[in-house]
Amino acid sequence: MKDKVGAPATDSSDNGVNRRDFLKVGATAAAVAGASSVGMAESASAAAYNPKKFAGTTVKILLVDGERDQEGIKDKISYIQKTHGIKVEVTALALGAQLEKIQSVLRASTSEYDIIDNLGFTVSGVVGGGLFTKLNDYIANKELTAPTYNYPADFPAGQLDYTSRYDVANNKFGGKDVYLIPGIHSGSVIMFYRKDLLSAAGIPVPKSWDDYIDAARKLNTGGVSGTTMIAANDVSLILVDWYARFASMGGKLMSGTPGAKNYKPNLNGSTAVRAVQHMIDCAEVSPKGVGSFGFTESVDAFSRGDVALMLCWSTIAGSAFNPETSKVASKIGAVQIPGDANTTGRPIRGGWGLGIPKNLPKKRKDAAWMVMQYITSASFDKYQMDNYQTDPNRRSTYADAALNKKFPYLKVAGQAMENAKMLDVALIPECFELVGEAAREFNLAIIGSQTAKQACANAQASWEKILKRAGHLA
Q1: CA gap 353, 357 in Å, rounded
Q2: InterPro entries from the xrefs (predicted)?
């Protein structure tokens, strides 16, 4: 049963500023990097845990809109007030608007928000720029952290080295210093399919990319499209559909390192071209207008029963298993993405990390940690997944028997999380600018304006120009 909302919460689509419009922002994370230097977290105490230590305070949270992250927190506002004595206010903005807001509040003298959710692909800019509070002392503080919190053991190791731990001194992911806690959701990419259609046609679940396109062509009949994909000029064209193909075809995106100034893309090689061509081939057996599809359009088409096969973020498409929102909930299955015979389907690592801005007074940081600890707890993680099907952050949620019975894809999503690979260019603040350039070129190929080879050559040239401008490539 959901708690009654007991305090104001604000949601905004910001008049259409969405993931696609976010491409116009370019290297927003790069603009944040270097805005201030990192500082030490506050000292730990050996006193007993006191959940109401900061009663009477208000904590403001900034999230992304459109991914259902705010819903569980809004449900639990009255619970947080009752348990911790803290009033919570939630603002959720579309991705582009959220990123711009993060820039402004982290560069202000004092942050407007106490807790900010950060997309993993932007961590190198905002955390690497020293703009968030180190959390190690909070986690170790027995007065401020519940004994059941179970960090880091209950989190996938790869996720901790992506949306939690960061080595600011050497500007790289991982290390011992904690700046974020994975949340509100993590997730990777898996394959969704119509069990009934494959069975009726006598087609096995695709295990390779050749299997995938063959199955899509055979199933493209009777008013059902063989597949769908994110083919719009949208960052998820790269992050979901292209990179899933490229990496599991054995592709290596980058060579060299940014520090050595020899960080060079491999976008014009045969594997990159093959991955784009596979998407062009899939477009021929996709719904009309797939060249303008983002993940919302793809998931909606799949949930209506219009599509047989689909790759998508599991945290987005998990709703297809919900009979209240999907006409095919009882007819679908989920597996790991396909891969070539000499590789394994290794999807991209996604997810978000919650952090406390450095530019806050100590009392606000302390109260923020009390709330952040709850909204990244095992109990809240399970609640959010159960009610809104956002991908969990904790291993215990992925393994929960009742949730797996209710949502059969959950175990598959958990396996994908353990196996997922961080996008190579997430190492640098220009990550999304690069992804946006490639998405634009590959979209033009999918809609027939250029060949796969031309698209890859153009993307290669754009990436090299950006990397040279940023000093990562001589």
Answers
A1: 12
A2: Bact_solute-bd_prot1 (IPR050490), SBP (IPR006059), TAT_signal (IPR006311), TAT_signal_bac_arc (IPR019546)
- 3 state SS of 54: coil
Specify the CATH number for the domain of residue 223. 3.40.190.10
Q: pTM of the entire structure?
A: 0.85
3-state helix, strand, coil in the chain (%, to 5): 45, 15, 40
Strand partners, 357: 132
Q: Is residue 3 part of a domain?
A: no
Same domain, 438 and 418: no
Whether 99 contacts 29, CB under 8 Å: yes
Q: How far apart are CA 458 and CA 442, in angstroms?
A: 9
pLDDT band at residue 12 using 50, 70 and 90 as cut-offs? very low
Residue 246 half-sphere exposure toward CB, CA atoms < 13 A: 25
164 and 17, same structural domain?
yes
Residue 202 pLDDT: 98
Pairwise CA distance, residues 356 & 370, whole Å: 11
The DSSP annotation for 404-456 comes to HHH-TTHHHHHHHHHH-B--GGGGSTTHHHHHHHHHHHHHHHHTTSS-HHHHH
pLDDT band of 345, cuts 50, 70, 90: low
* Claim to verify: residue 13 and residue 138 sit in the same structural domain: yes
CA-CA distance, 332 to 317, in Å (whole number)?
11
Host domain of residue 387: 9-187+349-424
Q: Which of 424, 443, 461 is the endpoint of a domain? A: 424
